Amino acid sequence: MKNSKMESSSPGVRGEPLRQRVIDAAERLLRHGKADFSMRDLAAEAGVSFATPFNQFGSKAAIMQTLSTRRIDAMETRFAAALPLTDTAERVLLAIDTAAAVMLEEPEINRAVMGWLGTASSSPGQVWARSTALWTLALGAGDGLIAARRAQALDCLPGQLAFAFRGVLSFWTAGELPDEALAPNARALAKTLLLGFTEQRV
After folding, report:
1. In a shared domain, residues 124 and 52
2. pTM for this structure?
3. HSE-up of 108 (CA within 13 Å, CB side)?
């Protein structure tokens, strides 16, 4: 009963979605170096009942997937706000740089989040779909791609770019790739994927 009262009376709770409150708390714990936090720790940090994180997300893995989606949302927002580019190759490389910059802003948090993405969860997350959507946005209308292959490129490249960026991130997460190598390696992979669809070298 005490926890229930705490949820309804704590400052900032009224009108604030519980999911957002729990996610913000998870991010704070990660920011303070507590990547191994328990759901009980999370509930205490969020000022909610012990059951609330489970009720809202189901598992810690699902919470980490939601944090990953928050990063992808930030990448999309920043990319959309950047100077408009029409050439597809330039757009993709800008998206790579933007995505890498978001990940490098808080590397310890983002490594912790990435480390959880391969963990089995009771229900599939939305990371794959959101990541593919980011690269679809980056490809735009396909301006600058070989006309005869444009439809094929717009169909297959979003998924391939998502695989490529996730692959580079996995080595970065494991500490095998230093921060300064994240964007250059991701750019090199993106250029390789674009080679068969552009008339000039990228």
Report:
1. no
2. 0.85
3. 10
